[in-house]
Automatic annotation (TrEMBL):
Name of the protein this chain belongs to: AAA+ ATPase domain-containing protein
Highest taxon of source: Bacteria
InterPro entries the UniProt entry points to: P-loop_NTPase (IPR027417)
Length: 555
């Protein structure tokens, strides 16, 4: 029989939640905090229904955090935002906000402590901009920094819900799970591996009628999330169900469930990037492994989204399967951006460069030199390495690119005269590609900010077509694990020792940041200014404050 939850009446919390949604002069919504199993989701659902009934033009959208979707960037928002063609994290967040719209949106975010960093960032930005009314439920402990900032920064009304005197015990939950019929239990086991799943897929996996059986027992529930999801989708009726089933599932049985799930999901591949990343992640620990090339591509996409941990996991898996250079480079990127430059250098040192094509040699050499310079703080070694590689390259285009990177090295070590000289030669070379122009232009302009500009405002640089991704041009990885105080929005109440979280993009050194701000004011054309603000100014800040900090000042 269905489990009986010991849920207290929350009349006061419901009244406060209704008031927070209705008060246009206050924060646009509320955060409902409390432990699992006390009725937070029910409070949110009832409040959303009441508000939508009183305001017919309201668009209600649901986002639910789960442990499996937390492993993928924008996992919980995959049905609401499209991210396949967007580049850097700041641009991703702007596009995600735009795709949600702002006309009468009521966004319910359930179990927000289970959101990935980008999803949590998006919730924070929606609250900061007042782009939607929000009902957020979460546990106060273990929430991402961006979610904790919702109440720390006073953006949403905080409503604490007390636990009952006699909460439902884990033993009662285990006893209930032991009584489930095999079809209902199978539904929970698949959801423990990947949650949510569509009704169609779950019935194909667990048998016709399995979802209805799980609902009859109160073990699972279907939800209409809105957006572009395969509604209805199935969630466990309570997060503790998936947690307890996952803990009890034998590793071999879990692997079999993943294999069966990957087989079914692969029959109708999704065009949503989050779904593709989730499928590849599931397949790695199954008996239906993906192609190594697909894993490398997924690793690159994860790194592009700023999920360094996922990028490392995928790249390592691809390297074990193929041993190829592409997987090795992706893994080195992931390690370097996490401040693990020694590991990245050792990984790159294993490459036998004598058999590489010129294009592959350049990919390997540029990454290794940048890692030696910025992550290992070995400028002499990095500069000498660039010279050695340059002597092996015959094509003038790649040689110019190597020169451009050496100019940035010279600028960063204070050798301004040499940096200006080399940068000028690169900018004047017809063989220079976009990347070389970007590196040389940045080096020359930063030197100009120090009073040694020369002809850095030449039309060659000012009119350059900036490539969409310029490694090292506007961000030098320094391996910071925690944003400095100056990264927070001006006037923020966030303390300097706030909890750390993995950065979603490489941080920049304060020395370069100070120079770059002067450079923008003195040297950049409006177009270059706009482009480089997207690539540089945004990235040193915590991701959730990026688009709303224009005018903020680093001290």
């Amino acid at each position: 029989m269905p489990i009986r939850w010991n849920v207290p009446r929350q009349a006061t919390a419901a009244e406060r939640l209704d008031a927070a949604l209705a008060d246009t002069a206050a924060a646009a919504g509320a955060v409902v905090l409390g432990p699992d199993g006390i009725g937070k989701s029910t409070l949110a659902r009832v409040a959303a229904e009441r508000f939508a009934a009183a305001h017919p033009g309201t668009r209600v959208r649901w986002v639910t955090g789960t442990p499996t979707e937390r492993a993928v960037p924008f996992g919980a928002f995959s049905h609401l935002v499209r991210i396949a063609e967007i580049g850097k994290p700041a641009a991703l967040l702007r596009a995600a906000r735009a795709s949600l719209g702002d006309a009468g949106l009521l966004l319910v975010v359930d179990d927000a402590h289970q959101l990935d960093v980008l999803s949590a960032t998006l919730v924070y930005q929606l609250a900061r901009a007042g782009a939607a009314r929000l009902i957020v439920t979460a546990r106060a402990d273990g929430a991402p920094d961006a979610i904790a900032a919702l109440w720390d920064d006073g953006l949403l009304t905080r409503i604490d819900v007390e636990a009952p005197d006699a909460p439902t015990s884990p033993g009662e939950i285990d006893a209930f799970l032991a009584e489930l019929t095999p079809p209902a239990r199978a539904v929970l086991e698949y959801l423990a591996v990947a949650e949510p799943l569509s009704v169609t897929d779950l019935n194909a996996l667990a048998g016709d009628g399995a979802v209805a059986e799980a609902q009859r027992w109160g073990a699972a529930e279907t939800r209409m999330r809105g957006g572009t999801s395969d509604d209805p989708v199935v969630y466990t009726a309570h997060p503790l169900f998936a947690e307890r089933v996952r803990a009890a599932l034998d590793p071999d049985d879990a692997r079999q469930r993943r294999t069966e799930l990957v087989t079914v999901l692969a029959r109708h591949p999704s065009d949503r990037l989050s779904d593709r990343l989730r499928l590849v992640s599931l397949a790695l620990d199954s008996d239906a492994p993906p192609r190594a090339a697909d894993v490398v591509d997924a690793a690159r996409q994860a790194l592009r989204l700023g999920d360094l941990a996922l990028g490392e996991r995928l790249a390592r898996a691809a390297l074990r399967r193929s041993g190829g250079l592409a997987a090795r480079l992706a893994l080195a990127h992931a390690l370097g951006w996490q401040g693990r430059g020694r590991e990245a250098d050792a990984l790159l040192a294993e490459v036998d460069s004598t058999g590489l094509t010129e294009a592959a040699l350049m990919d390997w050499a540029l990454l290794r030199a940048a890692n030696q310079f910025w992550m290992l703080s070995e400028p002499e070694r990095a500069t000498a390495f660039l010279r050695t590689v340059r002597n092996r390259v015959a094509d003038p285009g790649p040689r110019t690119t190597l020169d451009a990177l050496s100019a940035t090295f010279a600028m960063n070590t204070g050798n301004v005269g040499h940096a200006v000289k080399v940068a000028g030669e690169v900018l004047g070379s017809p063989a220079a590609d976009d990347q070389a122009v970007a590196w040389a232009g940045s080096a020359a302009a930063l030197c100009a900010a120090r009073g040694r500009g020369g002809s850095t405002t030449s039309s060659r640089w000012r009119g350059a077509r900036w490539p969409p991704n310029i490694p090292g041009c506007c961000a030098s990885p320094s391996g910071w694990r925690r944003p400095p105080r100056c990264c927070w929005r001006a006037g923020s109440s966030r303390p300097a020792n706030s909890r750390s979280s993995s950065p979603i993009s490489p941080s920049c050194s304060s020395r370069v940041a100070r120079s770059a701000r002067c450079w923008w004011r003195t040297c950049c054309s409006p177009r270059a200014n706009s482009l480089l603000r997207q690539r540089y100014w945004v990235q040193p800040r915590p991701p959730w404050s990026a688009p709303v900090t224009r005018g903020g000042r680093c001290r």
